[in-house]
């Protein structure tokens, strides 16, 4: 007790509220909601923000994470889109409390290096997946190597992809690939409409795996390679690996973690 002031020796102080930067998709309703949140909670420039609050769908969350690759600030998404698997429910009330209690999940993107016929290499980062797709009516023919060892001499298919755990519920799931919990140190290697080997359904790989695709008969059967929204046409070779040196943080409401959503998706009717 401070005898002079009559106060306790220790005073409990409330932690300062995080500074927020709000972003929204082009959807008018999302922009209107964004303005209401800014008016209510304030806004700071992106460089000064503790947390980014993104309003939109899963596509906009992916866009926000890409624009945040250098600053690597935590992102809390609220659903104002057609798909919101990566988003929290939209609610304007109690946002500071939700952020204080939110669970955080770390994502690591994939590095894609794609070589074209001239020998030039084009590189991009993918938060969801790196995908190879045939460019014409003819099927693609790919040689697949893992850690410098050939595992498939010839995969005849529409394409093939490598998905992160975050991307396992996107294109990978549509291609009948496995759903991977975010904390699993794994990648999904999933064929797209495989014709030969007919029974091959893909593989689960360690997150340390280095995947190489060699395009066979590249002139006759051209193939494109895409890292999320970055595309390279007429590739001859593509290498994919995880970038552990880049960490992106997504925030989910307490009790509504990504892992819980993954489980719910797998047991959905």
Compute the CA-based radius of gyration: 22 Å
Percent in strands: 35-45%
As residue ranges, the low-confidence spans are 1-7
The CATH architecture classification of the largest domain is: Sandwich
Q: Return the structural class.
A: alpha+beta
Q: Care to describe what's here?
A:
The protein is of the alpha+beta class. It folds into two domains: 20-107 and 247-266, Probable inorganic polyphosphate/atp-NAD kinase, domain 1 (Rossmann fold, 3-Layer(aba) Sandwich), CATH 3.40.50.10330; 110-242, Tumour Suppressor Smad4, CATH 2.60.200.30. 16% of the residues lie in helices and 37% in strands. The protein contains five helices and 17 strands. It has helices at residues 28-41, 58-67, 95-101, 171-174, 258-266; strands at residues 20-24, 51-56, 75-79, 103-107, 110-116, 121-126, 129-134, 140-146, 149-157, 159-163, 186-192, 203-206, 211-216, 223-227, 230-232, 235-242, 248-252. Strands 6-5-16-13-8-9 form a six-stranded antiparallel β-sheet, with no helix packed on it. 36% of the residues are buried.
Could you give the topology of this structure?
Elements: E1 20-24, H1 28-41, E2 51-56, H2 58-67, E3 75-79, H3 95-101, E4 103-107, E5 110-116, E6 121-126, E7 129-134, E8 140-146, E9 149-157, E10 159-163, H4 171-174, E11 186-192, E12 203-206, E13 211-216, E14 223-227, E15 230-232, E16 235-242, E17 248-252, H5 258-266
List keywords for this structure.
single chain, 269 residues, alpha+beta, Rossmann fold, Tumour Suppressor Smad4, 2 domains, 6-stranded antiparallel beta sheet, 5 helices, 17 strands, 16% helix, 37% strand, elongated, disordered N terminus, cytoplasm, ATP-binding, NAD, NADP
